[in-house]
Request: fold
Amino acid sequence: MEETETIIQMEDVHTPILKNISLQVKKGEIITLIGGSGAGKSSLLMLLNRLVDPDKGTIHFRGRDVRDYEIPKLRKSIGMVLQSSSLFEGTVADNLAFGPKLFQEWEENMGEELLAHVQLPASYLHREVETLSGGEQQRVAFARTLANRPDVLLLDEVTSAVDLKNVDLIEAFLLEIVPKNVKAIMMVTHDVKQARRLGDRTIFMENGKIVEMGPTEKLFTNPQTERLQYFLKE
Ligand SMILES: Nc1ncnc2c1ncn2[C@@H]1O[C@H](COP(=O)(O)OP(=O)(O)OP(=O)(O)O)[C@@H](O)[C@H]1O
Reply:
């Protein structure tokens, strides 16, 4: 049987905030990260696209140490979307084209296709981003990240500032793009129900450490540690 490709491998990674982080992400997986405020979830994501480097340990992306990639190429391949999108002033099309133009990969018909992923009509291409609702802006932020054809998406609380309709749209979109358009997703969410809905595997963190990690349903129905049992009850 063909072995599933390992997309990310972290081995015994330490930073001032994180301790002893080891994990693997395989092709096709959505990994959800849960844990209380300050547990280190965002810090873990930031290691992957080198917003932070470890003091100790190694991080491999598609079999290669992340430090061996040029940073713009790494960040093109490992895209990140945050809680509130940082679209720049201009039209939706300007925002979508920005990344691909850096790599001479922009084609005029891409815009329409990218917006279709996030269920926005092509007419939005010419809209100034400031005229869009928060939820629409967040969907454009997704389309802009997808424009770079990333292998991995790092998502940090991406639905916490949008209304329920947009939460549904974004969740449906995420389930649809893996592994067709992106190979894997790592997603931090404070919404444990969302972590359960979307995750293939879930990581529970506390004090900079991974306390439990496993198949999402198993983790939720049969938490092994008192810490996680307590966290899920809160
Ligand atoms: N740049 C920084 N300098 C110093 N401390 C930091 C820095 N960034 C994060 N921290 C600290 O590291 C710890 C982990 O933060 P992190 O943002 O990774 O947690 P989190 O689990 O994502 O929390 P939240 O759910 O509140 O976003 C916190 O105690 C935070 O204050």
Notes: The CA atoms of residues 12 and 157 lie 25 Å apart. The longest helix spans residues 164-177. The chain has one domain: 6-86+150-233. Strands lie at 6-14, 21-26, 30-34, 56-61, 64-65, 78-81, 152-156, 184-188, 201-206, 209-215.
